[in-house]
Automatic annotation (TrEMBL):
InterPro entries associated with the record: Apaf_helical, At4g27190-like_LRR, LRR_dom_sf, LRR_R13L1-DRL21, NB-ARC, P-loop_NTPase, RX-like_CC, Rx_N
Designated name of the protein: AAA+ ATPase domain-containing protein
Keyword Cytoplasm: no
Domain Disease resistance protein winged helix: 436-508
Pfam family of the protein (one): LRR_RPS2
Organism, scientific name: Manihot esculenta
Keywords: ATP-binding, Leucine-rich repeat, Nucleotide-binding, Plant defense, Repeat
Top-rank taxon: Eukaryota
Domain Disease resistance protein At4g27190-like leucine-rich repeats: start-end pairs: 878-1021
Keyword Transmembrane set for record: no
Lineage, opening ranks: Eukaryota, Viridiplantae, Streptophyta, Embryophyta, Tracheophyta
GO biological process, one term: response to other organism
GO molecular function: ADP binding; ATP binding
Length: 1149
């Protein structure tokens, strides 16, 4: 299909040309007859396109005709766009000459201007005539070929006007339970090997990636591995890239690291003492040398036995290269016909059990049978059949000839193409464009819409207000047809990003022979047909483009390219994406790109733009995200009168005179101030703003009247608003009026107010000002954050907000009470049987509320009339020193409760045992808390943390019932006397920390540890601890141990230590009376990390230190005598440790 010219490409181009020929261009340029003739030719040719597409398969002359037509159509689009550019240019000239009488742009005048305009007119008139002559030839050839007008579509197109959100729910995975079970079993039976490799083999679309994800999920649930990493390899098997992506999974701050040795060292450090599961998805490499090289690197950094790699691949040869042994290979089966029908049925009718007409079911089952066991084909076709449920439409799919094709990719792609063929032409172009992204690329929805817009797929500037809405609709249409997957959403449940299945990506490539995406740089021999190019060069120099090869490019992506080569003549470019490239500057010639509509230089070191950028009058999108070196934009950036989206990270990058950019929809920051920003009234005309807006330095607004000039109430598209005053200002006399005047539109979903100096919040936040008595103004608010509003004495009334999910309040230090007014207005009517307070709130945080003394339950809750916080999952209270109690007894939906730094809290509640959904309970620095209520029945609890609760005498009762508990931390509880035997019932416990509890004579009880068979990390000890019982009983599972002791009578290490042969990390702290470590320390053959601290009398290490061949890191601190003896030059103990790769010796930790 690569050499076929698909009619939707030509059809889309012709449609754009027609839409560009506006009445303004016809009248202004006095080319009425020529442009009218051009329109008529395009319309006539358009009518025979479908016949030409079908005939080109058998007639090479028709194929050549279509290619010629495509080139002429692109030329015509560029010519008409030049006319539009000149009109925009003149508008800017007029805009820059206020108060002067400006002669008509198109009237003839004397001198240079006359000559330039006349020359341009002659040149463009000549171009239009040339295009008309070319089209005349094309029409003549069409007649000679006998191309006919086809009035009825051969394939019905889908009308996609319905709401499609419901399909986004995770659908049930069908028929893969046995596959997952077998693979997990292969992994667990090989746990004694350093590295096991299990390939999952199967043809495209069978669900190998889905099975791998299910294996990951099962491995996490069974706690088989400490770390899980995922790398999509695809056809670029680059060892350094794979290792780098593994490291980024573990540490996101290591992105961009290019030195392989550095990557390996970081990986080794991150993976020490950890078992890992690595998924290498979609592997194509058939060179065994490359695999062996990667495998040897991974074996070198393996921190322990039991590591595993799962490889998904379509190739049996790849599987034979990577598998540990033949029995490790898992071949994924095709689905049964009934399973394919189940997928189609669920996609079409949902999971509600709706009745299906028998005639439709019969056709549907036949289609399911013809999917030949491929779930992707069933899912994609199900999306198509969902939109069109008429019998004739299903029959057109059933009777299609594509079912007769056999073979590998030839078997699946035609099936998927059935859904593509049913799309409208506009959607076909948008889908084909996505082939510019590499496989497994995370596609940002907003960015994709802006890229479509730059290509003209969403209409022209004359339809400017509709383009983004059309783009969002197109995105959802492709999503509902399963061309996109792996959707991620933000807190407002809006789609943020998606991916394409690799087979769907193959389909996009097959229908777009104008797009090339290169992950491995090589010379490009022929670019005559390429109009979209993506170079991913991994920091290497970009390849040499053929002479003149860049002249036809419309979209150019260059990631990791070292230099922007000015010799690349991008005269037709619509999109230039240089994200993450090595550029530091753009050439002055950038201003010659008249057609450019999208420019992205995010994550580059670019320091300044040339002034010529202000001549890009067609530019719609400018992205400058994390350009840390860019301190200022050109003064005349206001001349970019078509600009709709500007995205930047720092206030100094805000455009000057931004109020002139009246088409703006994206403006992340608006900075006020005479030196750094603009005036608030510049926002007045920017009523097209969408998404997020932060207004900074509001102290520069003098009063309510001036604030109202921002006209925020008219900005219906804003979703998130942040209002910030400087914390370092001298006065705040005008804050209340200013905030009152900044009332947003009721569509706002997120609101953040920071460093507001008023004593009360504005009326639009405090009370009902809607025309409807039963509706608050901020009815759509999902997230609210109030912080550093230090003069406010009352929190706004928020309890009746129907959509509020996240509420964060911090540093409102003058608020003394949370009472009825927080939940509802005194005049509010609360229905006894229906009203809920904070009905959907999921996260609530109070922090640094130094004046807060009391938090009350609302009267209506106390009286049983209604309920509050019915959906609250997370409650965090931090550093509220004067708060003595918490009204949490009715918060039974909590999954996370964290109380930190509430020194006045003496009582928790009596019904903690009713919190059956609670997974995390943290009590930190609650100095007056005497007891913790029973936690009997908290079977979901996974993490219990009690730290610096000095008056706690005993642990809460019911601990034995917390059978899901994985982590228990008890530290700095000075009055804690004992830890009872309930501990032995915690069979899921993996991490146990008990330290700095001086009243504990022994911890834990002697016979407790033997029951904790899952325990991997143990910290025990305090200054008073005299014994370390039970250590020997956990010798099989324990991997990390910290022993803390301070008693001088303990002159040796506990002898039980010598039996902990699985131990990988050991810390020995405050054994102050010990002078020498025993020789049996050398028995700990698995030890990889040893830390010795605060052993002030320690002088000698055992000679068996040299037997610890796996020991990679030794740290010694606070051991003055040993520190002297371990000196590298002349220290008597140095020969015992000199073999250890990493040695750190210091006075302090």
């Amino acid at each position: 299909m690569a050499d076929i010219v698909l009619s939707f490409v030509v059809e889309g181009t012709l449609a754009r040309v027609v839409s560009l020929i506006t009445e303004e261009i016809i009248l202004q340029w006095n080319l009425k007859e020529d442009l009218k003739r051009l329109q008529e030719s395009l319309a006539m040719i358009h009518d025979v396109l479908q016949d030409a597409e079908e005939q080109q398969v058998t007639q090479k002359a028709v194929k050549r005709w279509l290619k010629k037509l495509r080139d002429v159509a692109y030329d015509a689009e560029d010519v008409i766009d030049e006319f539009a550019y000149e009109i925009l240019r003149r508008k800017v000239e007029i805009q820059d000459q206020p108060g002067n009488e400006v002669r008509s742009f198109f009237s003839f005048s004397k001198g240079t201007q006359y000559v330039k305009k006349a020359a341009f007119h002659v040149k463009m008139s000549h171009k239009v005539k040339n295009i008309n002559e070319s089209l005349d030839k094309i029409k003549k050839e069409a007649a000679e070929f006998g191309l006919k007008v086809i009035t009825v579509d051969r394939l019905p197109q889908i009308s996609l006007d319905r709401v499609t959100d419901s399909y986004l729910d995770n659908s049930q995975v069908v028929g893969r339970e046995d596959d997952v079970s077998k693979i997990v079993n292969l992994l667990t039976t090989s746990c004694n090997q350093p590295l096991t490799v299990v390939p999952i083999v199967g043809m495209a679309g069978l669900g190998k990636t889905t099975v791998a994800k299910l294996v990951c999920k099962a491995a996490k649930e069974k706690k088989l591995y400490d770390v899980t990493m995922w790398v999509c390899v695809s056809d670029n098997f680059d060892e350094q890239r794979i290792l780098g992506e593994m490291l980024q999974t573990l540490d996101k701050n290591t992105g961009g690291m290019t030195n392989k040795d550095a990557i390996l060292k970081h990986l080794e450090k991150e993976l020490e003492m950890k078992r890992f599961l690595l998924i290498l998805d979609d592997v194509w490499n058939e060179e065994s040398e490359k695999w062996e090289s990667l495998k040897s690197r991974l074996l070198t950094i393996c921190g322990s036995k039991g590591n595993a790699i799962v490889v998904t691949t379509r190739s049996e040869l790849v599987a034979s290269i990577v598998e540990t042994s033949l029995h490790c290979r898992h071949k994924i089966r095709e689905l049964l016909n009934d399973e394919c029908w189940f997928i189609i049925k669920e996609r079409v009718f949902g999971s509600g059990g709706a009745s299906i007409p028998s005639d439709l079911e019969a056709i549907g089952r036949e289609i399911a049978e013809r999917c030949r066991g491929v779930p992707l084909a069933a899912r994609v076709l199900g999306g198509t059949m969902r939109i069109k449920r008429d019998k004739k439409d299903w029959l057109s799919i059933q009777e299609s000839k594509v079912w007769e094709v056999s073979g590998y990719n030839d078997r699946i792609l035609p099936i998927l193409k059935l859904s593509f063929d049913h799309l409208p032409s506009s959607l076909k172009a948008c889908f084909a464009y996505c082939s510019i992204f590499p496989k497994d690329f995370c596609i940002e929805k907003e960015q994709l819409v802006q890229l479509w817009m730059a290509e003209g797929f969403l209409g022209t500037s004359s339809e400017s207000s509709l383009m983004e809405a059309i783009g969002n609709k197109y995105f959802n249409d492709l999503l509902v047809n399963s061309f996109f997957q792996d959707v991620e959403r933000n807190v407002y449940e809006r789609i943020r990003s998606c991916k394409m299945h690799d087979l769907v990506h193959d389909l996009a490539l097959s229908v777009s022979n104008e797009t090339m995406a290169l992950e491995a740089c090589s010379n490009l021999d022929d670019m005559s047909q390429i109009r979209r190019l993506n170079l991913i060069c991994g920091g290497k120099p970009a390849p040499a483009l053929p002479k003149g090869g860049s002249g036809k490019l419309r979209s150019f992506f260059a990631k990791d390219v070292l230099l922007y080569d000015e010799s690349w003549k991008f005269k037709r470019l619509r999109t230039l994406n240089l994200v993450g490239s090595g550029i530091r500057e753009l050439p002055f010639s950038i201003g010659k790109l008249k057609h450019l509509r999208y420019l992205d230089v995010s994550w580059t070191e670019i320091a300044a733009f040339p002034d010529s950028i202000t001549k890009l009058y067609n530019l719609m999108t400018l992205r400058l995200i994390v350009c840390t070196s860019l301190k200022k934009l050109p003064e005349n950036i206001k001349n970019l009168i078509s600009l709709r989206h500007i995205d930047f990270s720092y206030g100094v990058q805000m455009p000057a005179n931004v109020g002139c950019l009246t088409s703006l929809q994206t403006l992340p920051l608006f900075v006020l101030g005479p030196d750094r920003g603009g005036a608030i009234q510049e926002l007045e005309c920017l009523n097209e703003l969408r998404g997020n807006l932060a207004i900074i330095n509001l102290e520069h607004v003098k009063d309510k009247q001036e604030a109202e000039k921002a006209n925020l109430q008219e900005k219906k598209g804003l979703v998130a608003l942040r209002l910030t005053w400087s914390s370092s200002r001298e006065d705040n006399y005008n804050d209340e009026g200013v905030l009152e005047g900044l009332q947003p539109h009721s569509n706002i979903e997120s609101l953040e107010i920071e460093s507001y100096g008023g004593e009360k919040f504005p009326s639009w936040l405090l009370m009902n000002i809607s025309t409807h008595s039963n509706s608050l103004h901020l009815n759509n608010l999902v997230r609210l954050e109030l912080k550093f509003c230090e003069n406010c004495e009352q929190i706004p009334k928020l309890g009746l907000l129907p959509h509020l999910k996240i509420l964060m309040i911090a540093r409102l230090v003058n608020v003394k009470r949370i009472s009825n007014e927080f939940y509802y207005s005194n005049g509010s009517e609360i229905a006894n049987d229906a009203c809920r307070l904070f009905p959907v709130l999921k996260e609530f945080s109070l922090a640094f509320m130094n004046g807060l003394v009391e938090w009350m339950v609302p009267d209506v809750v106390r009286e049983g009339c209604t309920i509050a916080f019915p959906c609250l999952g997370s409650l965090t209270i931090r550093w509220c020193h004067q708060l003595t109690s918490l009204p949490i007894s009715y918060l039974s939906s909590l999954t996370k409760l964290k109380i930190n730094g509430c020194g006045g809290l003496s009582y928790l509640c009596d019904v903690l045992h009713a919190f059956t959904s609670l997974e995390e309970l943290s009590l930190l620095d609650c100095h007056k808390l005497v007891s913790i209520p029973s936690i009997q029945g908290l079977t979901s609890l996974k993490n219990l943390e009690i730290v610096a609760c000095y008056n706690i005498v005993s642990l809460p009762s019911g601990l034995q019932s917390c059978t899901s508990l994985e982590k228990l931390t008890i530290t700095s509880c000075s009055k804690l006397m004992s830890i009872h035997k309930d501990l032995q019932e915690l069979r899921s416990l993996v991490y146990l920390y008990i330290s700095n509890c001086p009243s504990l004579a022994s911890s834990p009880p002697d016979d407790c540890l033997s029951f904790l068979t899952q325990l991997k990390q143990l910290t025990i000890g305090s200054e008073e601890l005299k014994a370390f019982p039970g250590l020997e009983s956990i010798k099989e599972s324990l991997e990390e141990l910290v022993l803390i002791c301070g008693k001088k009578e303990l002159k040796s290490l506990p002898s039980q230590l010598q039996n902990l042969t699985a131990l990988k990390a050991l810390q020995i702290v405050n054994f102050t009376a010990v002078e020498a470590f025993p020789e049996w320390l050398g028995n700990l053959k698995s030890l990889e990390k040893l830390e010795i601290g605060g052993c002030e009398n320690l002088m000698y290490l055992p000679t068996t230190m040299q037997d610890l061949c796996k020991l990679k890191r030794l740290k010694i601190y606070g051991c003055p005598l040993l520190q002297e003896r371990c000196a590298k030059k002349g220290g008597s103990e140095w020969p015992k440790i000199s073999h250890i790769p990493e040695i750190i010796i210091s006075q302090f930790r």
